[in-house]
Structure formats: structure tokens, C-alpha cells
Batch of 3 targets.
Target 1
Amino acid sequence: MICVGIDPGLYGGIAVINEKEEVLHLFQMPVLKLKRTVFRISVLSKLFETLKMQHNEKIEAYIEKAHSRPFDSKKGAFTNGFGYGMLQTMMEVYKIPYKIIGAKTWQKEILKDYDKTDTKLASIEFCQRKYPDVDFVISGKKIKDGLTDALCIALYGVKYNG
């Protein structure tokens, strides 16, 4: 069984692990920076098409539930909702079984031994300890919490639903 964890934001990520919790792939959410940052839908589509072809019936995805927050701009909330819906549509198109998982649900289980005052930092610390050989820096010098969140979501899928 292959489990795909998805942090659906523009700065999110996609993590692919197996039932032994080994990291197979990590992808930063593919985006294009123009006047504003937008999802690269064709790249996402190819990614899921390839995963489906490689793993066929042995794949399941977990998408973090999106919601607007009081401090989100209208444009930000719309973009967030667009990405969330687009990713669900891709799961349907490629016939990848998926579940929607709330952030607090996976954080409660996966980060139970960590200070959740800053869940992004807790996610980074957890993943660096569990996977010391995995590089969570995709470009630049900063660790991408979208990748570590996606990996935690995938782990939740394997541990509690797989």
C-alpha cells in the first residue's frame, strides 16, 4: 500500500510513503509565480497520473481539510478553496481513493509528544527526528513545512487508517 499525504496550500506539499513508513517521494506543491502565485495544474495532473500508473490499486491519499480563517484575504481564501477542490477532483479523475483529514486530527496523533503551540515547528521537528536522512529543503535554505505537514498526513494515513 502506498499512502499519499497532501497539504493542499500553495506552499503545501505532497508526500508518498509505503506501509513501512519509508519516504518514497516528496514534492513541493507545484506553483508558478506570475503576478500572483498559481497552482501548476498540468504538473499536478501528471504527478497523480504517474503515481496511479506506478501503484494502481495499492494507493490511497489523505488531503488536509481546508477552511478559511478570519485573517485570510478574500483572494487567499478563494485560492485555498480552489486548490482544495482541484486536488479532490484529481483524486476522482485518477480514481485514487482519498479521505479528508482535519489538521487537528492528524496533529493530535502524530505530534502527540511535541509542543503544538507552533504546529509547523512541531511538524518539522518530528520529521527531522523520524527521518534524519531526508532533506526537507527543496529550494533555498529554509525547511518547507508544507513537506513535513504532508509527510505527517501520510503517516497518519498509514498508522490510523491504512
Target 2
Amino acid sequence: MTPLAEFPVLETLLWVCLALIAYTYLGYPVLISLLARCFSHHAVPSTESLPSISLIISAFNEESVMEEKLLNSLALDYPSALLEIIVVSDCSEDKTDDIAKSFSEAGVRLVRQGKRLGKSCGLNFGVPSSSGTILVFSDANAIYERDALRQLTKHFSDPAVGYVVGNARYRRHAGLTPSAESEGLYWRLESWLKQKESAFGSVVGGDGAIYAIRREMFTPLRPTDINDLLNPLQIIARGYRGIYEPAAVCYEDAGDSFQKEFRRKVRIISRSISAVFREYKVLFPWNQFRHWLCLISHKILRWLAPVLLIASLIFSLLLWHFWFYRMVALAQLGFYALGVAAWILGPLRSSSRIFYLTYYFCLMNVASLLAIVKFLTGSIAPTWETIRGSESVTQERSASPVGRKL
């Protein structure tokens, strides 16, 4: 048998990959929890004065949810004199624009792009027509709690705060699909991480469903930019910090199939990688070390996870001669075999959580890998399609939110 000493480079590479994978999924949550407890910020938000708000709703072919969204927006607990509601239609082809126009007497304004250019160009078009000192960005399917705007804006009393991210929750209903449940579990972990990051220093990124920035912090976007990551990164680069406010709650539906979630993840991650490289200053730890640590740990290592997983499998197979590394290789192969089996089983995988969660983990890492390829090849699309089908919209009407009873 070949002496172990002949493979120091392979061993080192394998352990580095395994250590980074373990840190990404296990170590970082523990670390950020400890850091948030030991080094948290203690700024006290103020509700004494309310700023003027522009609630900007991005929409493309959202006729199934637009009326509910506007009724919800008009019913929010915020002075009407300080709130303007703007629907930015990305050249919608259905009745989205007509529904928005029907609310004009209530103060809703429609801003329509004459050509479909994507959400980012729509914001470039819509923001200049707004007047609020605080811009709140929302999706058409995101239904806000009545006090969501007050919860968002109270943090802007701190001049060091540049953006505030709300708490987007996925709805739970009787017919919850495995993909929606998997995404719901993932999102609850994400929300927990955001809360800890916010306490430690600054939450990484925004959320297209519910986040707010100071008006002067908005920078025009390129068609392929993802606004809810690039804008926060630009704000961080200017020396401000971001806050996560769990009490600013909104509800939306996850995709009703793994395929829809897969496409959404590819689009989001490819644009997010592009955003980081565009605002590369955030990669320098001496600018804002706390945010840098969270960005590397929470986002970049997560995006690189499929590369690390593939590399660790290759290295362990090359070290097959040694029983320990053989066990490591077999454990990885067994896990991926479970994911492949779940893919082959199709609808039958919904009967077992271990099947669909394994499948979800594998699928999302494949999505990250494809997103990296799209970024490297420059094939990022500027437009998007809603991931909600007619069935999921129908279910939404009788849904209960995840973790909350109505």
C-alpha cells in the first residue's frame, strides 16, 4: 500500500474543503450566534417622527395578486399624507396595469415601462418619479402586516443606518408541497442568520419583498443587477450599515415545484455574484470587517459550496486506498445516491422528508454551480417570470403563514 506520507497535498486539500463545508453549514451559524451575543450593537430606534415613504411595487403580469396587494398597501398603518404607492409595471401583458389604474383615485400611481427591460430598469424608471425620503421596495405578491412600514422606518432615526430589511415569511397551507416546505425551512434559517448578523454588525443584503433604503442611497442599476443585494452592498461601501427588523413582517408563497425554485435560485445567485464583483470594495476586510465576515461566510462560501463538494469527493476518491478516506468517499456517494433516488422517485419522494430535503440540498447546490457558470459566461438574463402558478395563487387565498396563525 502506498504510504500516507506520499499524499500530503491531497490530504491537505481534502481537509480544507471539508473544513470549509462544515464551517459554511455548521460553524458559521454557531460563530455568528456567539459574536452577536458578545459584540452586539445597542442602538435604540425612534418612532417620534415619521419620514415620508415611497412604496415601490415591482410587477410583471401580476393580475392574480395585484388587487390584494394594493388593498393591503392602502390599509397599512401609516399616515396617508406621508405614504405614496407606486406600481412599476415591466410592460405587463395582462390586466396588471388596469388593476393599478383602478386605484388611482386612492392615490396609487402606475409607472409603466414601454418595453420589457426587467425589474432593475423598472426601478431606474420608477424611483425618479417618487418623492419619499425613504424608499420601500416590494414585490406584488408580498402581503404586509399593518405595522410593517412603521417597523422598517423606525431604524432610520440612526444616521448610521442606510437600509432596513424586513421579515419575509413563506405561507403554510394544507397542500404544502415538498419544495415549498424545503424552502420554508431554508428561509427560517436565513431569517435567524439575518437577525444575528444585524445584531453583530450589518445584515448581508436586502429582500425584494420588503426592504427600505434612504432615498439618496439609491444608485441607478444595470439591467442584470439584483437590486436587493447590489444596493445594500453599495450602501455598505459608503460606510453605512444595514438592519434586519423581524417585526416588519410580510407573507408570500414559495414556488410550488422544485423546478421553479431551481430556476429562481439560478437567477438570484448569478446576479448576486455579479453584484459582489461590481461592488468589489466590500471584499476588502479593512473597510467594514464585520460585514465582510458575514458576506464571506453567509453568501460567498455558500455559493462556492458545490465546487467544494465536488472537490472533496474527487480528493477522497483519489485517497481511496486508505480506509478512513474510503469511508469519507462512501458517505458522500451515499448522500448523493439518496438525492438521485429522490429525483428518480419524483412525486413519491414527497412521502419522506429525508428524500425531499436531500433532493432540495443537492438541487440548490446544482443551481449555485449553474449560476457560477452563467456569471463566468456572461449569460445573465435581465428579465424574470413569476414562479407562482394559478394553483398556488388559489391556495394563497386560504393560506396561513409559516409559524403564525391567522
Target 3
Amino acid sequence: MSTTPAGSDVPAPRPRRRRGPRRDGADTRGAVLEAARARFAVHGYDGTKLRDVAADADVDVALVSYHFGSKDGLFAAAMALDVNPARLVEELTREGVDGLGERLLRRLLGLLDADRGAPFVGLVRSAATNDQAAALLREFVEREVLVRLAGAIESPDPELRAALTGSQLVGVIMARYVVRIGPVAAADRETLVAAIGPTLQRYLTGDVAT
């Protein structure tokens, strides 16, 4: 029985703030994405931690992992990328490096030609004129994409080879979708794969000094 006298003005205990999952899953996901976009914009890819995003969104960090898997998955969702570039590279490298240059380019062009990669093109476009966007893109590509690509390369200097491959792919994105250089923008997909794929393959497995 309470010992507080009737009519006492002693305030009732305040309820504890809810820290677990929110009742509405959609609201939870949206709150996490909003917090992630703010964190990525201010702190970049490397400086953004899942626990900080979770704290900003007022949810448990396990819930962030449940919805997005990992930081690269959260980044892809926050940037509205229809396909996670890191997972795409991981998928393609499971087949080995033989013919990887053509597979990478064909898959990339297929996604971008169908506008599924429009947000990624937008990020590349922004990186050309905005230092913050450039740092965010660079950190993500280096940390999540090139590391996976280098891990599949068995030739000497895998990090250099992966970086050269990445630079060629970014160049294709710029020429075909951002600057829209006439013949490159108008060329059919297989023409570009036949022309550029062997260069990518040389970066991956050939002599990079020639």
C-alpha cells in the first residue's frame, strides 16, 4: 500500500523511455534511414557507426542489423541504391576472376541502362562537384567494393589492380550517364563490353605495366 498521503503533490514516477523496437516497423526503418543519411552526410562512411545511427533513431542497434544487415547494406538503403555495389561485386567474384572484367561491366551497364542504378549515378555526379559527396563515395568504394574485388585477385598488387578496375568503371559511368559523351552514350551494351571488358580483365589478371 502506498504511504503517500492523499492529496500529496509528490509527482508520480515518470515512465522509462522506450529503447527497444518501435511498434510500427515501417516507422522504425524510416527513422533509421533518416538518422543514417544525416550521419553519412556529416561523418562520411568511415566515421558512421551503426551504434550511433541506432542511438540517433532511438532504437536498439540489433534492430539496425536486422533491417539492413551491415553498414554497407545501410548505406545502400540510405542512398536509395536499388542494388548494393558491394554485394554485387561479392556475387560476381564467386565465379572467379576468369572473364570477371566482362561480367562486371555487363552487369553494371545492365543495371544503369535500366535506371535501377540512377541514385548511384546521382552520387557519382555529385562527387564531381562536391567534396563531401566525393569523400563519402570514395570511402564506401574503397572500404566495401575494392576490398572485396582485391580479395578475389590472385595476381601481384591486388589493391592496385582493384583500384584501376574501379577507376575504369567510374570513368564509364561518367562518360555514358553523367557527361553523356555521344558515341559512348549511344553505343549498345555489348559493344562497350567487347571494347572495355578486355582492359578491365588486363587490370585484374594481366600485365598492368603494358
